[in-house]
Specification:
The chain has helices at about 1-25, 30-45, 50-65, 75-90, 95-105, 105-115, 120-170, and strands at about 25, 30. The protein has about 200 residues and is mainly α.
Length: about 200
């Protein structure tokens, strides 16, 4: 939850910068452009920075679960790289869509290689396809992020249940916080204590 909160804070800060750039134009202040930008960013923010930092935060807190201090795990690096790849794909979705649209349109490749440019009709077809593909790429990247978060949370919930079972087997109360735990880095359960007679 803390990771998602950090991402929401950053997304709000970044959106303010985009809003400023959209509002200030050579023609003066463009409030319609500002509102369009802010609405779009408000819709996309939950599957952008909020989601990516939620994933990384879950892994960071999972590595620290049940300890007095942080313990490094290779999964932190793997998650960071994965989140960076998702962010890179998200930022390059427009370029990816344009390249895929050009490659998918056989006529565009032919015109580019023979004439050095696109006719108006071909350019229009490529632009329309690129717009659709842009949305598809964003949906695929968002779905990848959501799936990653679900897998991370499922892993830590299962680890927490296994830890609770291990604690109950030795007579210790189970940890009540089901948020995160990693059995690969958790401390072994303490042996049961005998009553003092």
């Amino acid at each position: 939850m803390l990771g998602a909160t950090v991402g929401a804070g950053f997304a709000a800060f970044e959106s303010a910068g985009y809003a400023f750039n959209a509002a200030i134009t050579a023609r003066g202040i463009d409030l319609v452009s500002l509102l369009e930008t802010e609405v779009l960013r408000a819709i996309l923010a939950p599957v952008g920075h909020v989601l990516w930092t939620a994933v990384l935060g879950a892994v960071l807190f999972g590595a620290a679960r049940g300890r007095d201090r942080f313990r490094f795990s290779i999964w932190i690096v793997v998650t960071y790289v994965g989140v960076a790849v998702l962010h890179g794909l998200w930022d390059s979705a427009s370029d990816l869509a344009a390249v895929i649209a050009l490659l998918a349109n056989g006529r565009a490749i032919e015109e580019l290689t023979t004439a050095g440019g696109l006719s108006a009709q071909t350019a229009s077809a490529v632009t329309a396809l690129a717009g659709i593909l842009y949305i598809v790429v964003l949906i695929v990247v968002a779905a990848g992020g959501i799936l990653t978060l679900w897998l991370v949370l499922r892993h830590y919930r299962r680890a927490e249940r296994a830890r609770a079972v291990a604690h109950s087997a030795v007579g210790q109360p189970a940890v009540s916080d089901p948020a995160v735990s990693d059995p690969a880095v958790s401390d072994p359960p303490a042996p049961p204590q005998r009553p003092i007679v």
